[in-house]
Amino acid sequence: MSEADSSMQVELDSGKRVKVKTANVLLRFAKPQPAELMAAAPPQAAEIDLDLVWETAPEEEFGFEALATEYFGATADAVQRAAMLMRLYEAPHYFHRRGKGRFRKAPAEVLQQALAAIERKAAQAAQIEAWTAELVAGRCPAPVQEQLFRILFKPDKNGPEYKAVVAAAKQAQRAPLDLLTAAGAITSPYQFHWQRFLFEHFPKGTGFAAELQPQPLAETLPRAAVAAFSIDDSSTTEIDDALSVQGLGSGTITFGVHIAAPALAIAPNGALDAVARQRLSTVYMPGHKITMLPDAVVEACTLQEGRDCAAVSVYFRFDEATLALLGAETRVEQVPIAANLRHDQLDAVVTEAALDAAAAGAPPAGLPFGPELAFGWRLARHLKAQREQVRGKPETFNRPDYSFKLIPAGAAAPDPEHLPDGSETVVIGERRRGAPLDLIVAEAMILANSHWGGWLAEMGLPAIYRSQASLAPGIKVRMGTKPAPHAGMGVKQYSWATSPLRRYVDLVNQWQIVAAARHGAMAPLQAPFKPKDAALFAIVSGFEAAHAAYNAFQNGLERYWTLRHLEQAGIAELEATVLKDGLVRADTLPLVFRALGCEPLPRGTRVRVRLTGSELLTLELHASLVARLDPEAAPPADEAGEEAGEELDAAPAGLALAIDLDEAEPAPAPEAAA
């Protein structure tokens, strides 16, 4: 409409007038009308041969009008010049922008790389489209199958497999897990849980390198004059602890706690230590386990009956009449293991009545180590009473422990060498918590762990401790490197040192204990870990994370096998106890689940619920209230069990997938994310 030295006034098709800087004007023309030009230029731009234009373009910088004249001829009109401008702008891989309307052609090698990248992107898009169509049709492409767990839990959101699953889920309007199951990617719920765990925590497999062997003892250890016995389940191969009793009838009893000594077979910072520090714990699950240490190390260190085994022993001297503690001494020695007693074989024999008879001098037939177990039972009750006095209230065992036996198809009994695949028949058994054998071992280990924790602190040696500030709700057990009271156990301090074959924390503490036993006052200079050692803090952090993950996996597989038991036994109804917000706990199975209709009932109410279905992938159990079994008021929360937090934690939280169907943009490149 008008023009000045540096700007002009332009009227748009809408009638609106705007001020435009002259420097921003790329093309002046008298005809056709602007709207006609904008309609005609794009089709002509699409017909321009970029390869030909690139070949004819000069090596130096150029303007688009000059190139339009070269391509269309000297009579190139406004539409053709606009078409060339559009074509150059939409092909940055051929022509690099150098200013308003000015370009320079890309070097040949850069162009070839760009064209190859574009071709790859187009091929990938076509591949994603093909995979999407297969998934929607109910077939799982092999690359998606291979990346299944990465897609679901640790996805590369720029990966074609992930994009195909997201696109197929949106197109089919199905949840990703349902889509993949329908497509055949998930054929076995058990294998899904097992392989997912391996993917997250053992991506390189669960085996050990053949060269990982225990180091031989550097010295000849003195042989203890005891006949020690262990108490474990029949399936236990990592036998960490054993007991001995000496001096019965003499007035002073020497009660020995003997712990397997892998600290003597594993050098700190060596190859075996690196493996143990990476795994941090043995992983337990029904029918199988992944050991922290190689079989050769376990075999060399386990307290196997009939052998003299290297052990770290602590001997407690008690007054036989009053059970007053007279003193304690720690030794590194060879301990003769007389027997490996088994819970599942002896719980029915080693009863309170049998132990009372043994204490009176008449042990029943079939009761091994009757006098020793009778003293252990008497001592255990005494120690428990002392701890309960410190706690301020007695310990209660409201729930049994459950055992899972998996019987392979066609077999009559469990096979220790059999790796479960989900098809086995499961037998769930109960073992009462606080039974004599259970209490004897538990109190002996608490006594040893508490004593060693205090002893190491007196010697000026750092160690890893567990502590609990109080029994108030919400105060949880913590791990640290300084001794502190453990309110839940009623002890001044508590270290983990009695399971060094199965927990890395115990192995670390055992190294410190061995240093204290061998070097005395010089131990702080000789121990592997010095005060304020940063490695200890790293071990605590890593162990807590691994321990939580392993426990969650074990609980998940126990829940899986419990749901399978419901299916196999055809159980349609269960009696249960209400916890909170509709959660109930089965009375005879290790199972916490939601039951519709139980939401308004108070905690502790007994109910019967009907099971309406289960999901083995998400481990969910669907149920509804049938009847209330006790119309009376529920007991107060403090009488309903001290483990409410653990019970609520056992409730299913659902399967947390990392796949996001609501993404509008792809994930940023690693550099951008960083």
TrEMBL record:
Highest taxon above the source species: Bacteria
Entries under SUPFAM superfamilies matching the protein: Nucleic acid-binding proteins
Membrane-crossing segments per the record: none
UniProt protein name: RNB domain-containing ribonuclease
SMART domains documented for this protein: RNB
Organism: Aquariibacter albus
PANTHER family: DIS3-LIKE EXONUCLEASE 2, RIBONUCLEASE
A GO molecular function held by the record: RNA binding
Pfam families xrefs: RNB (PF00773)
Residue stretches making up the RNB domain: 220-519
One of the GO biological process terms: mRNA catabolic process
A GO CC annotation given for this chain: cytosol
